[in-house]
Amino acid sequence: MHCHYHPTMQVILKRIDYKSLNGRQKENYNFQKVSGVLADYGYSTLRLTDDWQGADFVAQHCDGVSFLRVQLKGRLAFNKKYQGKDLWICFPVDNGLYLFPHDEVLNLILNDGRLQGTLSWDQKGNYHFPTLSGELKYILKPYFLSHSPPVVPETVTGL
User: What is the pLDDT at residue 49?
Assistant: First the structure.
């Protein structure tokens, strides 16, 4: 039996400009990008419609044991309301993503005195870093996950 492919509608795929997306679209985009990277490390992701114990999504490892509750961000961020909830923070960067335990990395940042004394942290209870300094990249280095090279499919014959 031969399979014949007859497209009924032409689909034009064009890369989008991330900056042109609205907030919800950026969150969806980031989730898809992050899910692709986590798949390379054996994780399946499930987007939650409502924050569950502070998590935007859960990630289950193929070992059947590892299970992460993850808060998705657009950049490095900490929040007092995430403390003590065993949450992981994830944010994409050009060549991969960072995925780290919120409380563990927060303690490293607090021990360096980076957040104390800021209006954002002291009064609002959160802090976002607009860019990553060399020091922050060094702290986050163990939590960096890179994209895998693309898999090139073999040529299909007999169609």
Answer: 83
